[in-house]
Hints:
CATH class of the largest domain: Alpha Beta
Number of helices: 21
Helix content: 25-40%
Shape: globular
CATH topology of the largest domain: Creatine Amidinohydrolase
Number of domains: 5
Radius of gyration: 41 Å
Largest sheet: 8 strands, mixed
Strand content: 15-25%
Number of strands: 37
Structural class: alpha+beta
CATH superfamily of the largest domain: Creatinase/methionine aminopeptidase superfamily
CATH architecture of the largest domain: Alpha-Beta Complex
Amino acid sequence: MPEEKxxxxxxxxxxxKRVRHFLNAWKTSSPTDSPFQGVNAILxxxxxxxxxxxxxxxxxxxxxxxxxxxxxxxxVVMQDKIHFVVRERRAEVLEQLKQGDRQVPIEIHxxxxxxxxxxxxxxxxxxxxxxGDQKKVGLxxxxxxxxxxYDEWLNVFDQHxxxxxEVDISSGxxxxxxxxxxxxxxxxxxxxxxxxxxxxxxxxVVTTIVDDEKETxxxxxxDKIENILYSKDDKWLSSQKTLQDVDFERTDIxxxxxxxxxxxxxxxxxxxxxxxxxxDGTILCxxxxxxxxxxxxxxxxxxxxxxxxxxxxxxxxxxxxxxxLEWIKDGVKISDVYKKALKYIKMKRPELVEKFVxxxxxxxxxxxxxxxxxxxxxxxxEFQAGMVLNLFTGFVDLENPxxxxxxxxxxxxxxIDTVRVSNESAVPFTEGNKNLDSICFSxxxxxxxxxxTKKANKRPTKPVQAPxxxxxxxxxxxxxxxxxxxxxxxxxxxxxxxQEELAAQKQADGxxxxxxxxxxxxxxxxxxxxxxxxxxxxxxxxxxxKELKIIVDQRNESVIxxxxxxxxxxxxxxxxxxxxxxxxxxIYLRLNFLTPGQASGKxxxxxxxxxxxxxxxxxxxxxxxxxxxxxxxxxxxxxxSAAKKEAERKEMADLIQQDKLIELKGRRPTHxxxxxxxxxxxEGKRVxxxxxxxxxxLRYHSHRTNQKLDILFSNIQHLFFQPCDNELIVxxxxxxxxxxxxxxxxxxxxxxxxxASDVQFDETGNRKRKFRYGDEDELGAEQEERRRRTLLNKExxxxxxxxxxxxxxxxxVDIPFRDIGFQGVPFRTNVLLQPTTECFVHLTDPPxxxxxxxxxxxxxxxxxxxxxKNFDLVFIFKDYSRSPLHINTIPMNQLENVKDWLDSVDVxxxxxxxxxxxxxxxxxINQDPADFYSQGGWSFLKLHSENDDSDDASDxxxxxxxxxxxxEESSSNESSYDDEVxxxxxxxxxxxxxxxxxxxxxxxxxxKARRADExxxxxxxxxxxxxxxxxxxxxxx
Length: 1037
């Protein structure tokens, strides 16, 4: 690093804040069992800075508190003061630290060219260390400084070594530096952005090399990638939109990029790129970037023409990393996470246990590898929120028996990411380019199909195709002959096989969740008994009780009844209902109370303090006083008021006290979105407002009113941006974790939008429009509207990305996929439902719909049968106490699209021909979930679907058989009819002389034919109704 100059600016505020944090960690640690080991002074020496080994704790500590590396410097940290021993020129720079509030006392000792004077300074420092009874000093014993400055210090220090107890303090420094503050996290996030951009460039470079059949070695390719950061002539990196604010003068490479292929894979920390040629197959690459001395790391696998087994193994590795991110959280032991990973591999893919990496990475910050936080089976330290990890997941020495090339028979897979530990799941900083669609490429084309068996290793002559998923969805045949497609699975077969795997996994998860006596977590909450107190003492009773009348006390929500000469109060909540009837001159008033065992609908399961106590079931009063009718009306009004208050109380029961918004002090927020409306709207007239980004959240307010709405980043679960393409509005939608009160109502969805139509634009000033009406005006208006919509989309999307950046990576911008959306009725109206990366949403009109895909247990497609135009979709959630979501009237032509989407997001789905009673089904499941899964779980839906299919098939078969019989009957009838015609002709010829009156009429002939049919066909024709017979008579007449 270049030597510092006098104009170097130190951040005194950051220095004192971090030193206070370090001293607090030291003081609060245990004297015996702690990483600081009870030392009374810490001595950190930096002599000559080594370029070969930049990762040392001494320089890391300097970087942490000062932001720079100063050579020839001694820092002595005491619990009440910090001493700096430096050259005179650097002492002037350190004087800047004596500024600001809440200072930690510092003392600067200046060295000169006079050796004797320097010895005196060293002696004074050592005397301060040896003061008091305890003379235990903490040193970085594993580091071996070198240089003239260190030799000069060592000559003096060795004379006092016998009076001091030396202790290695590296563990204490690592503990203090492990948790990063907001400024450090922001710097690491910027370094991660540079790493992501360079990895994207690497993938493009590799595919180009393979496509052009160029030969290059691993180390040559490594140098080419490294030069992207250092080459000043290559402006590609600095031209990227995500890196506009980066100071590239303060960027550096953590290590030379590591590239491996061709069957030789090394997962050790000392691995380097060798001089072997790059081989297409499985290509591994990892690279790291330092920004302002803070490290980031990323590693990806590129698969060229992989087999299905390789794809399956990589998908499993992705799933394992997702689970690791869920397991890594504040307070969890490092060893426990590694144990969970091994257990999960043994359960899913036991053959991969021996191939799994021996550690899952390490802590990272100023040091690339924080040795105290190696993520392996032996480390019992706990994760802490704010730590940054280099998360390394992979399998090595995997075998590929289907490989046609010897170098591809052994392969390895890895995924490396920079992640931040939080209170929930870990947050990756280097997200992207790790799904199978992004790293899997196919080089085979149709022209190679005939030559494939002869020349298996021949390189392709056509360009590298798009990612593999795109090739699968292509309608162009990959082969020339049908026989070559026999081994290829159809889309339906692959989907069916995948669904069977998901169903088996769902059953295994259910048994693990509820089986073996494990308490399930989806029990419906039992309503606790609430005590009602009408009056604390008898003096609080109304004065009217002396008259022994029925009194309705609205203030105390009670009804006072006279009982055997006593005034007895009853809280309105104990009253079930009240009835009034009149008989003659008397008015009867009956009050029924809630008691155990009553079948009272919603109140059937109402808890009681002691169900075995004696209860009053009802009171009946009779009177001729017409005031009894007023009392009846007063009790009804009181009960309605109490029911309304109880409903409001239950509605607000799940509200959580929100933290306060930390505003940006001293300046107006730079990131603002003006002229936007909010839904649900504020009270009063609908007026636009302004949305601002503050330190820990958002604030929406209108300049015309004093109302404001604060939303914290920590309470936002999903952030959506929906462009105004094919819509009337452009919007930002926030789905909250916990509901908030907005406009006197509770809501979990807040939306900010701006209208995209030209209704709000005033065009009355254009005089030409009064005289010109034609295609030119319409074309200009369309172009203006397209331009306006483009600007709106750009503005809202940029603001959404700023929200994501300000939330420190806890929020990602999710955009609905309109192309795979479909129509449906989730509430009362038919709307467009659109999937996103993490959700399933409808955001255009209220009521809004936001369903998190990970919350879905299964999906059930209902009314799926031939002849219907629509079908229904039901989502059952993992929280069984949550009501299933019904989406009705989905067009039948969208059935395959819905199935493909559900299968792509790993949601198990079933289908049937009928609508099921899900309220009763879920009630049965909640009664005993363990028994439900022991009997097969959700497989009953598959059996139900198969039964429906078999019934339909049997019905159709019987109908088809019946039609054949009828056909035979009609044939025999026709032949018999022909015989009868010929016979009749003969008879008619012989009986021409008889009179017509002797012939039978139509009724007799019909009756005769019916009896003949009965004899021939049994009772078949006997079942014909009289109406049908009469109809046949009329037709034949």
